[in-house]
Amino acid sequence: MSQINILAIANHPEILETIIRLINQNESWHGIPAGSLEEAEEVLRLNSIDLVLLGVGVDEETGGRITSLCRSIDPNMVCLRHFGGGSGLLYSEIRHALAGG
Amino acid sequence: MKNPVRHPAASRFYADHGWLKSAQTFSFHGNYDPHRIQFGALRVLNDDTVHGGKGFGRHPHDNMEIISIPLEGTLEHQDSMGNTALIRRGEIQVMSAGTGVYHTEFNKDQDEPVSFLQIWLYPNKLNVAPRYDQIAYAPADLHNRFQQILSPDPDDEGVWINQDAWFHLGEFDKGFEASYELRKDGNGLYVFVIEGNIGVDGQLLSARDGYGFWPGSPVSIKAAEKSFLLLMEVPEKW
Question: E strand or H helix at A96, and its extent?
Fold first, then answer.
């Protein structure tokens, strides 16, 4: 199975670092951090991303812009809101999204 | 009409980390079932028991309304907002994680376990300022009545959260029957039996069973034996 590239966007550096660390604990997943809309756009431009997590600090407007950008790159790219900031929901959010939930 | 969900106690996910035993009604951490994700805004209902002196080390949360209801023992809370608090049965703790908070939760007692319900609800506002609070209720407040412990209104009884949700606790004598009316039309009601046996909506529920449904009229709840129950009224969408 090929690796799943997951872009996580959040403006809280410690929480973002935690999310990336947790994602990378799964050998099949590769987490890429972005602390701002600009960083996220850069990552999306340079990488093939399968899943985007909109984390803390990403407001509705910014989330909408990122989602639109993702859809324009790949209509099948999944963008979802990440809640909770830790391991509690992260894994099931990702697994649910990858399963098409 | 949306379908009801019944979650017998034995159908929950079980996680045993040695120091922590956790029975989880919905998908959590490494446990995943696409049919057990949430009930409306109710996302986490964990029934946790922590060994003496052990606990959850420093970890983050954001954008989640987190409620703890101690059932036995003493839990020590510390967070990055500067709060340090002890909570026991008879108290309710709430944390709006909002833009981000770190906290620890430890069993204060070195010898006795602490058990508590850990409940997470999706917020109806993103990126709010983090907030911590706790309240106490008198055991008599629960006797043969529903005591409100949570609402969306800072001026109402109990703690408040950023969601159109209302929680009530009740301790009913055998045979006692009470009616609950939704605070907001269209909301769902998730009934969790902490102790005892109750009848609700044609279902007989035992200890640690959960039942969620979408009542259109007042709900009658009858205790088949002395029972302790938690009602969680939550929106389907927000």
Answer: helix A87-98
